[in-house]
Amino acid sequence: MIVDERRSRILQIAEESGFVSLQRLVTEVGASESTIRRDLEFLDSSGQIQRTRGGASYLGDSLSDFDSRRSRASQEKQLIARRTADLIAPGETVLLDGGTTTLEVARHLTGKTLQVLTNSLPIASLLMNRPEIELIFIGGYVYPRTGVALGEQSVEALKKMHASRLVMSTGGITADGLFNSNALLVETERQMIRAADRVTLVADSSKFGQRALSHLCPLSDVDEIVTDDGMSEEWRLVIESAGLKTEVVRT
Amino acid sequence: MIVDERRSRILQIAEESGFVSLQRLVTEVGASESTIRRDLEFLDSSGQIQRTRGGASYLGDSLSDFDSRRSRASQEKQLIARRTADLIAPGETVLLDGGTTTLEVARHLTGKTLQVLTNSLPIASLLMNRPEIELIFIGGYVYPRTGVALGEQSVEALKKMHASRLVMSTGGITADGLFNSNALLVETERQMIRAADRVTLVADSSKFGQRALSHLCPLSDVDEIVTDDGMSEEWRLVIESAGLKTEVVRT
DNA sequence: ACTAAGTGAATGGAAATGATTGTTTTGTTT
DNA sequence: AAACAAAACAATCATTTCCATTCACTTAGT
After folding, report:
1. Is there a contact between A166 and A195 (Cβ–Cβ < 8 Å)?
2. Is the dihedral of CA A10, A11, A15, A18 positive or negative?
């Protein structure tokens, strides 16, 4: 088996349940304990997982109820979320993807008269009691921990919907486009892109240059990116030459 | 078992009721007393719980606080919910309607390996982090306050689903059948009945004789009723002559 | 054939665990 | 209030589990 493939698989398994024991990885991936350890070491040093005794825990945009309550969103995410919310005009129909940043965006939407479509349970729970927001939930198989509905049913439901804007997050951005770690999620997000007139990507600057398991879409599918000023000039050029508008918040 | 996993579990248990005894943790987590003590010490020093003699109390908003804030379910509902949960065998595919009683049923489902379909946001939020439960959400227009998905999209989604059992609530029961106050809700519930092999109705005894806006279905659509012993003998005859099984819990 | 990278097994050391001990606290009885 | 028993606790120790390191082996590319 190829190295990258094995590591991707480890990441995927780690993401599913948040925790993976080393032993489980040994049996599921089929490599020796030593190799898995080395992989975990690599993935830890590259910041994708956190090694713990006996296994590893997934880092990244998985929002479990634990995470959202304990560690609040970082300052970058807060600022990005607020700016993104400012872009949204009253009366719009907004499609909201799952993720910690989009959840923060949802927090800032309260008070505006909006129609909100989402496949994220945390976002729906947040907005459910707001009379000024008409909420439509996109059903499907609910992915554990993140509380995001995915799969064929979600895709089918999305086919019948239309929104003026999609606010989405991503696992990584390169010149090739956007990436995410979960194949089912990618499929659902692709359908979201099709359903929306305008695509607004929220991504803190650490996402640039990151590449994850599944390719989601080319850069040209995105209309604008809201990010923080940690983005290098280099990436700014890549993004703007692809015809995307960039909104940069100062931290 | 991995350290972090065990500590997360301790936190989760602590959160549920606000306080946990050490002994309960020993049996539920399956670690030795020493280990649990060490974990409690750690969680205390990191400020997540407060150790007390005999156990520990959760810091922050415990779920039971949350529950008691929004009037806790009555004793009847609790008992009905527990009995209903006992009827459900591991491995079943259960369709759960919205409502406070069905939410209580959902609470008692944790621990069983099940497939759960629901259109209720509160139920989905409750079950979303339970690894033993595969959760499928039925999307649609989210009705404010109750957090239940309704409407054409929900009906369409339900047409493609099938469950071994439906647990539903109702606004009122007469010899003519079941009633509910919301036309959209009635439509969705009718489709639920079609999608399920067996229909279990949860209804406290005050519902008998009540008639609401919309007629939902005849009594013959229901297979069994779980209720409390406030039901009069008269109603018992009506129900049983319609061929329904009745489960009566003693208050 | 040689090198470099990757892999798997073996080793010793570190950390975590469970059982045991003796001590402190709590509640009950007199 | 004093004496006692039961429960809860902290401290210690042997055992187990986990980990980093090392080394030998395989594979792929030059």
Report:
1. yes
2. positive
With beta carbons less than 8 A apart as the criterion, state whether B180 and B216 touch. yes
Give me the sheet containing A172-174, strands edge to edge. A172-174, A177-180, A214-217
Beta strand spans in A68-213 (E): 93-96, 114-118, 133-137, 140-143, 148-150, 163-168, 172-174, 177-180, 196-202
Q: Assess whether A54 (CB) lies less than 7 A from strand D.
A: yes
Report the range of poorest mean pLDDT among A68-77, A134-143, B60-69, B134-143: B60-69
CA distance A120 to A102: 9
Residue of A116, A129, A191 whose CA lies nearest to A158: A191
Burial degree of A186 (CB within 10 A; 0-12, 13-18, 19+): buried
User: Dihedral of CA B124/A162/B190/B207: which sign?
Assistant: positive
Amino acid type, A161: M
For testing contact with chain B, the best of A59, A113, A128, A159 (most B CBs within 10 A): A128
Interchain proximity A19–B11, CB inside 8 Å? no
Q: Which two tokens stand for residue B71?
A: 């009037």
pTM value? Answer: 0.83
pLDDT per residue over B23-71, tens digit each?
898 998 888 889 999 999 999 888 888 888 888 888 765 555 545 444 5
Give the C-alpha separation, B79 to B110, whole Å.
16
Alpha carbons A118 and A137: distance in angstroms, whole number? 5
Rounded to 5°, angle at Cα B229 from B225 and B235: 60
Query: Is any atom of strand D within 7 angstroms of residue A34's beta carbon?
Result: yes
Give yes or no for a contact between A98 and B137, defined as CB atoms under 8 angstroms apart: no
User: Which residues sit close to strand C, CB under 7 Å?
Assistant: A 1, 3, 6, 31-35, 38, 53; B 1, 3, 6, 31-35, 38-39, 53
Q: What is the pLDDT of residue A29?
A: 81
Nucleotide nearest to A51 (CA to C1'): D19
pLDDT > 70 fraction of chain A, expressed in percent and rounded? 94
Instruction: Give the least confident one: A27-31, A230-234, B151-155, B246-250.
Output: A27-31
CA distance B149 to B147: 7
